[in-house]
Design goal:
The chain is α/β, with parallel strands linked by helices. The chain has helices spanning 16-20, 22-30, 53-70, 89-102, 117-134, 172-182, 186-190, 196-210; strands at 6-13, 34-41, 74-80, 106-109, 148-153, 166-169, 216-220. It contains eight helices and seven strands. Strand 2, helix 3 (53-70) and strand 3 form a beta-alpha-beta unit.
């Protein structure tokens, strides 16, 4: 097997990374790589009628941990409330410190345009945290580490101007593991507003067709990263 990698998938809410990158995360976990999910808020304000916001937050944290555990990974949830993610250096340096601690090879997160303010802000926070973490001149408790990416996951809420650029295979085993693990998140199978599990299951099949695989997930990158370098044709 190739060298073990660490993949850090960062969402604005619990469940974002698990849906949009989860098939890839599950596939890589089965290949022996380390998976870290990070949610900058709990996503608790989508609470079902029978639960309070506070109780749903506790449930969602359990769901995040269970999903990550099924992949042999770890889940981290920041203390910020859904919809109240701050645009400040405190959250950026907290994420910077996590990047330095876990030393991910690559970061996965939200595309820059979204119908949700937490998603757009998460995009900016991740880019700044990546910069802070990789800069030797910024002294923190841990030494600097540069994480690759970010790769921006395909998300129905972040669809404006999203154009797939990278297709990553989701193995059949990874797809089956993801299907089991994602059902630990109540909203993915019980939401009356959107059929999350159905949508992302079918999207993986569609992207798989385009990638000449059975399943795949699509990502894009920053414009300045779109370089194909050849020595000749």
């Amino acid at each position: 097997m190739e060298d073990k990698k660490v993949i850090m998938a960062i969402g604005g809410h619990i469940g974002d990374a698990e849906l949009t990158s989860g098939g890839v995360l599950a596939s890589m976990a089965l290949q022996g790589h380390k998976i870290i999910t990070v949610a900058l808020t709990g996503g608790e304000r989508g609470n079902p009628p029978h639960m309070t916001v506070a109780d749903y937050r506790e449930q969602k944290i359990r769901e995040a941990n269970e999903f990550a555990s099924m992949l042999g990974g770890e889940a981290i949830v920041f203390d910020y409330a859904d919809g109240e993610l701050p645009d400040n250096d405190e959250v950026r340096f907290a994420l910077c410190d996590l990047i330095r601690k876990y030393k991910p090879n690559v970061l996965l997160t939200h595309w820059k345009y979204s119908m949700h303010k937490d998603h757009m802000l998460t995009h900016r926070i991740v880019k700044d945290a990546q910069f802070f973490a990789g800069l030797p001149g910024i002294e923190r408790e841990l030494p600097h580490h540069f994480a690759g990416g970010p790769y921006y996951a395909e998300n129905w809420e972040d669809a404006t101007e999203f154009v797939p650029y990278v297709y990553v295979e989701v193995t059949e085993e990874g797809f089956e593991l993801w299907k089991k693990a994602i059902q630990t998140h109540w909203f993915t199978v019980n939401s009356k507003d959107f059929k999350f599990m159905d949508y992302y299951s079918h999207l993986m099949a569609i992207r798989g067709h385009l990638a000449r695989k059975k399943y795949a997930q699509a990502f894009t990158v920053d414009e300045e990263s779109k370089k194909i370098i050849r020595t000749s044709f």
